[in-house]
Amino acid sequence: MTFDNLHLDLQENILTVTIDREAALNALNKVTMSSLHRLFGQYIPDHEEIRGVILTGAGQKAFVAGADIKEFVGLEAQQGKQMAATGHETFFLIENSRVPVIAAVNGFALGGGCELAMACHMRIAGEHARFGQPEVNLGLIPGYGGTQRLVQYIGKGKAMELLLTADMIPADEALRLGLVNHVVPAGQEVAKAREILTRIATKGPVAVRKVIEAVNAYFTEATDGFHFEVESFGYACGTRDFREGAQAFIEKRKPAFTGH
Ligand code: CO8
What is the CATH code of the structural domain delimited by 6-200? Predict the structure, then answer.
């Protein structure tokens, strides 16, 4: 399987995915969106050895500067709606990935780039990173989930301000607002993400997957997250990994999880 505009690097069960369109500040054109869809829809689910994913952008200037504005020329209502719907599908695949996905935000994360980072489970920002939803500058609104996920992360009032003014915020403000998990010196984003994912990879894979599903259930209309947690707890209790984890604690050794 090939992935145009993505560079993949698997090391010690952590897959680093670099969006590789540096000359266009890694803007998400149709081809890149299609690659991301196949990556998260097929490739990652099919490769059990992958225990975590880092998403980053090529170069030092941008994570992703948005959807590719040059592809917007001549865009009509129905076509725009379809592109947004397909993009939502892709970003839900990321959000619901069975393994944790961390955005290593190494510069501008604007529009679709900020939305992509928000679809990930965590965000590590370089201190030079800048976040924003500038779509209103183009007479547009976010179309990859930005109006919903920004509210989830930073609350309605501040989200409304950023969405309506198109203001960009620096990494330290994104940290203060709860949009990012950590701010690190420029160039250290991937290393920090890798350190976190390496620690998570020592945990029970089923438990990790169930935590992701249960947290996402809180934000899923028509799903009772508390009920989902009870069901998932029961499911985890029935796994070999749980028995191994408890036994390892008692025997004062590291557990050997198998994902079953
Ligand atoms: N799309 C296409 N090309 C881009 C984009 C983009 N989003 N951003 C930057 N580029 C290109 C520039 O055109 C330029 O290319 P060229 O050299 O060929 O002219 C190159 O990248 C470098 O950019 P700049 O020269 O502009 O670099 P600066 O350092 O001067 O500025 C900025 C950097 C501030 C990031 C500036 O490039 C900028 O404002 N970019 C646009 C940011 C933006 O508006 N993003 C939101 C786009 S809309 C969106 O994301 C909607 C998502 C939902 C879509 C739903 C369905 C389609």
Answer: 3.90.226.10
